[in-house]
Amino acid sequence: MLSGIYPSLYLTSFVPVHFLKNKTVTTFSRGIFRKVLVILQFALSIFLIIATLGIADQIRYIQNKNLGFNKSHILVIPLRSNQIRKQFSSFRQTLMQNNGISNVSAVSNIPGGQFNNNDVYWKDPQQYINTAEMWVDDEFFKLMEMDIVAGRAFSSEFTSDSVASFILNQKACRELNLSDPVGEMITWNGDYPGTIHGKIIGVVKDFNFKSLHEDIAPLIIQRISTNGQMVYLLIRLQSNDMSATIKFIEKTWKQFESDLGFKYSFLDEDFKKLYADEEKMLYLFRIFTLLGIFIACLGLLGLSGYLAEQRTKEIGIRKVHGSSSRQVFLLLNREIGYQILISSLIAWPVTWLILHRWLRNYPYHVDINLVFFFIATLGAAIIAILITVYQSLSSAWKNPVDSLRYE
User: Fold this and answer.
1) Does 162 fall in a domain?
2) Residue 306, pLDDT score
3) Exposed e or buried b per residue across 370-402, where buried means at least 16 C-beta atoms within 10 angstroms of its C-beta
4) What is the Cα 37 distance to its own chain's centre?
5) Measured between alpha carbons, how far is 222 from 19 in angstroms, rounded to an integer?
6) By residue range, what is the domain housing residue 189?
7) Last residue of a domain, one of 267, 296, 319
8) Which of 9, 163, 168, 215 can bridge 363 by disulfide, Cβ–Cβ 3.0-4.6 Å?
9) CA 243/CA 250 separation, integer angstroms
């Protein structure tokens, strides 16, 4: 659009009397305006290139960050069936007979999903903290490959494990000021079955049980004691022939539950969906980047042709006085190089500030990579040279006699 404004203003600036006398006198400096147009177009293109690279870098980071557990090859099945809840032990044993299944676990919440919160305190009821909560069976920590950093996980070998046994994450221990938490008694003010005064039997290493838009929060984990606390089924699959294993799981499901259909998802794919907005943003930036570069190229192509035309006589005189085609080529492209440099000096600080502010929305984020700035500037310079090379070479190779005759 900007590249179209300039020719329009240029033509409307003609004074009719001068035009009839073949005098092209303008009412403003054509040279300065031309440079401003090129600089602004390429500053925008450089900004879009850097921003696109920065957003893509952050998306790669949040999708590949170690969350504190292994989310690969985990099948998530909503447990809508009371039949399977009641026969869960038999259902799990049947599944474990398949060599493609390494473990099965029932949980109330899945990482990346919704969590309820309630208050927990250690000694003083007034010094409580708000914690997320979940219920798991004995196989959960093993299936998720989580680290128990103190104490132990739930186990059927310990008859003392009951509704009054808790496992906290490290963040909850820090907020409760528990330096040696295992064996300490805490109080959980829950919704069901109500307030429970129980013992901490273990501490799990902090893991991201929510999206990376949020920092790790305090978490209290209890052992499943009722069928109603089984909301999801987690199945870790072996990597070999997963499609056949899923068919086996579906067949087993139908044996235990004939009324409700079999539905599933993969945990790693569920996590990717948490960042759908970022993926859409990246897609739009890629489109705008290509569009911005295209418009800048059109503007540069027209303006470089205009520049070469305006300096036709100068080029002829220089060649008559011994300038080579190479010197003329460098002369015409030197100004473009300066404009790309100025565009970078404008785009770099603006892009850095915008990216820095955007990344602050994430507790976990990459550092801004300065390599992207150089890549964007180098890319813009290469594009500019490729666009102007035809005009420059045409002017450099033109016969000086023809240039001196130009009016």
Assistant:
1) yes
2) 61
3) eebbeebbeebbebbeebbeebbeebbebebee
4) 32
5) 88
6) 74-267
7) 267
8) 215
9) 11
Place of tokens 């949980």: 107
How far is Cα 349 from Cα 345, in angstroms, rounded to an integer?
7
Using alpha carbons, select from 83, 86, 90, 76 the residue that is nearest to residue 227: 86
DSSP state of 192: S
Contact 396, 325 (CB under 8 A): yes
Enter the tokens of residue 34: 């031309």
- Domains contained in the chain, number: 2
Q: Are 213 and 114 part of one and the same domain?
A: yes
> Looking at this protein, which amino acid is placed at residue 134?
M
pLDDT at residue 67, as a whole number: 96
**Strand, coil or helix: 179:** coil
Check whether residue 45 and residue 89 sit in a common domain. no
For tokens 């290509």, what's the residue? Answer: 290
Looking at residue 206, the DSSP 8-state letter turns out to be P
d(CA 215, CA 364): 8
71, amino acid identity: K
Summarize the confidence of residues 93-113 as an average pLDDT: 95
Rounded Cα distance between 9 and 23, Å, is 16
Looking only at the bridges linking them, the beta strands covering 195-204 and 165-169 are parallel
- Enclosing H/E stretch for 118: strand 116-121
Q: How do residues 121-154 score in pLDDT, each as one tens digit?
A: 999 999 999 999 999 999 999 999 999 999 999 9
Helix, strand, or coil (residue 72): coil
Domain end among 204, 234, 267? 267
